[in-house]
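Posting for a labmate who doesn't have an account.
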Amino acid sequence: ARLGKYGVKPTDMQLFQAKQKAMAIIEGNNADSYKLLPKYCIMLLNTNPGSLAKIQFETGLGSQILSVKRIFVGLDAMKKEFLAGCLPFIGFDGCYLKGPYGGVLLSAVGLDRRMGYFLLLLRLLRVRTKKVGCSSLGCYQICLMDFQKIDLGLL
């Protein structure tokens, strides 16, 4: 921009790389956030007795670095409140996650007495192909089975 008046003439690539470094400092990066997931699950279990927070890892091909394959979070208070006071309705939604890790974030919601959404559970799945994802009935069945296991005390 106005760097020329200071005798500095960066290339477009240098400007791009400087912006990437600045954004990483300001926002952090995905790898650091994913490293915190196990601590987050432990914190959830310690502060919310009866809740479920399951995390499964995988290693990449030729790599010994662990990455998150799937995570499931279901809070006991949400289950109890749903069973005690919500309408008998469960809706599922999901979205593809952008970025270097990708995956599908699935959620199950209920309706409270005022017709407001009531979050029941979250599940993150890493998928290798777009053929399996939010629009796939299979992912919703997995989510529903997890909810049923919670209700039966199996998960």
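Reply:
Got it, the structure tokens are right above this. The chain has five helices and five strands.
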